[in-house]
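Below is how a single chain appears once it has passed through the pipeline. First comes the sequence as given, then the structure the pipeline wrote out for it. We keep one example in the README because the format questions we get most often are answered faster by looking than by reading.
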Amino acid sequence: MFASRTDWNLASNRLAEALAAARRQGREVLDLTESNPTRCGFHYDQAAILAALAEPGSLDYRPEPLGLTSARQAIAGYYNDRGENVSPDSILLTTSTSEAYSFLFRLLCDPGDEVLVPRPSYPLFEFLAGIQDVRLSPYPLFYDHGWHIDRHALDSAVSTRTRALVVVHPNNPTGNFLKLEEAESLAHMCASRGLGLIADEVFLDFTLSAAARRSFATETAALTFTLSGLSKLAGLPQMKIAWMAVTGPPELTRSAMDRLEVIADTYLSMNTPVQLAVPRLLRTRQDFLAQARDRLAENLATLDRLLAAPSSCQRLEVEGGWYAVLRVPATQPDEDLALALLDRHGVLLHPGHFYDFPSEGHLVLSLLTPPAIFSEGLSRTLACLQGLT
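Resulting structure:
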């Protein structure tokens, strides 16, 4: 009765079942995976945010498939503030980056076509591709004093069915930005092979150094789709607004925008109140970014301080984003270790295999976690790991 594309394994994994049981029993759980900014103790300008949603124009329905001009102009202004010239006419609004991916997979791929995605990375790609009848072809990142793209493996992964390359800048959860030479090389590869370049930049402004990172939104060599949104940038996932900037060779970008406009017009998923609120909501980002960057730096310093003592684990290099990766003794499967930490010590971390790490011995934790919880949970984790050696 149901389409084969929805034939998922819907059973909960062991860690999810153990977490649900712990919470039913009222046991303390120090959640070191928390990434919902609205639950992390940040201050929001409630008056400004709520006022932004009370525009009188919200009562007037004016469907614009690409999104309201005022919202697209405000997003172009965000890039201009970064020193990057992006035209409002190259921007398309979506309710989420997930919706943007679905539009792009429909735009670029026929059923059975392939999209290249990094590994390790965020596990949502598998579902986004599957429901669009698209196959994923992973290309590996490798770690050597920092994360790098395995170019030989990437080139080998390209087939006659490949239609697009996804880069995550910075990657989730490894936290590595693409180096300038990597970005230029990938753009030229996509241009020469007729591939779309999809750049996921939702964490772009969350750098752990003073240096700003270049956006793909000014790329001109390849047909490029740069994704971002208010969920991360302003810490407002509940507002459900994201966008893509379409750049590249003029003829290709015009054709892509024309086709995307039809796709967007078919759904008209954007609601008017949040579109009208975009200019004011974007202005709140600076306060959130300052708080979030302070939190990331504080928790990273705590992590490094606790790891300074003799330890069996190591923090892998991270340049941006909300996550850190611990390399731990591979004495058991990562999921078994995460279960032990939860059951015996009341600490929740994610095992590396959730993100397709190629080997055991990795745990992922959120640097957005409130500092007191982060410090106590990490202390318990390192004490447990020390006992494994």
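The longest helix spans residues 285-308.

See the next section for the split statistics.
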